[in-house]
Amino acid sequence: MKRKWLQGLIFSGLAVALIVGAAVGVDAQEKKPQASPYSETTQRIGSYDVTVTYFRPGVKGREIWGTKLAPYGGKPMPWRAGANNNTTFEFEGDVKIEGKPLKAGIYGFHIIPSDTDWILIFSTDSKGWGSYRYKEDKDALRITITPEEGPHEEWLRYGFEDLTAESATAYLAWEKKVAKFKIENDTK
Predict the structure, then answer these.
(1) pLDDT digits over 142-179, tens only?
(2) 162: Cα separation from own chain's centroid
């Protein structure tokens, strides 16, 4: 009789421990806010989707351009055009960026800003963390644009505007800068 009572007590104790442990495990998996939240945006251009995947750093009262956050001249490396992992552009089909051809695929996106023009880089290395392992020989396309002044944008944001049946203008807006470039469906 005592043995059955002891077995019941042990079994009950194990059951309680499992329930409490599971509850603690669920609580431990709760997602916490990120300093630079994940985001993605997709736009159909012609018959293909274009998807930008990125993390959104905040200005948070900091100087951005020409600092370690977004260094001028690409030294020691280009800016990752976001935070955390590589910012990526995925093109379902062949496109033209500012009139220059780019094959379908996923590209790491980097920028070499300056106080006048910016060099936008689409790299075949889309898996890196930031720009730390950036290699120029992996560049699939480089274009030069002139950023515009814009209203204050606290959190970095990518989007699309000026949509037509075959093209759109992609943009990056952060702090008081807006970088725009035209994407065309390369079906012709």
Answers:
(1) 999 999 999 999 999 999 999 999 999 999 999 999 99
(2) 22
Look at residue 18 in the predicted model and tell me its pLDDT.
52
Residue 16 pLDDT > 60: no
How would DSSP label each residue in 133-183? Answer: T--GGGEEEEEEE--EEEEEEEEEEEEEES--SSEEEEEEEEEEEEEEEEE
| Cβ contacts of 67-73, under 8 Å, gap ≥ 24 | 70/111, 70/113, 71/113, 72/113, 72/114, 72/115, 73/112, 73/114
> What is the pTM for the complete model shown?
0.81
Q: Is 30 helix (H, G, I), strand (E, B) or coil?
A: coil
CA distances from 117 to 35, 45, 109, 112, 113 (A): 29, 26, 16, 9, 7
The region of weakest confidence among 8-17, 46-55, 96-105, 143-152 is: 8-17
**CA 47, 86, 69, 145: dihedral to nearest 10 degrees?**
-30
Is the CA virtual torsion 101, 111, 134, 85 positive or negative?
negative
The DSSP call for residue 22 is H
Phi, psi torsion values for 140, nearest 5 degrees: -95, -30
Cα 19 to chain center, whole Å? 38
Task: Identify whether the C-beta of residue 54 lies closer than 8 Å to the C-beta of residue 87.
Answer: yes
